[in-house]
Amino acid sequence: MPSLDQEEMTCATGYQDFGHHQAPNHQRTSVIKCDILIIGAGAAGLAAAAAAHDPGLRVILAEKEDHVGGTTFRSGGCM
């Protein structure tokens, strides 16, 4: 599988600024449509987003924390 740089990952995931987005405190009432929804921006979620990268697909990567990385982030990079 080809590797993606940060610009391509941003395009694939729709994530404009890794690690700096926080969900608002109010409920959203709008509908966002996508072809692929990935829950969790840990190692597996990021890999899934990279694998799903296709110019014709809209991929959304949802993360509950204010940073990407999941368990890998918390463990300092050791799995």
From TrEMBL:
UniProt-recorded Gene Ontology molecular function terms: oxidoreductase activity
Keywords associated with the record: Flavoprotein, Oxidoreductase
Domain FAD-dependent oxidoreductase 2 FAD-binding: 35-79
Keyword Hydrolase in record: no
Listed name of the protein: FAD-dependent oxidoreductase 2 FAD-binding domain-containing protein
Species this protein is from: Fusarium oxysporum (strain Fo5176) (Fusarium vascular wilt)
Organismal lineage: Eukaryota, Fungi, Dikarya, Ascomycota, Pezizomycotina
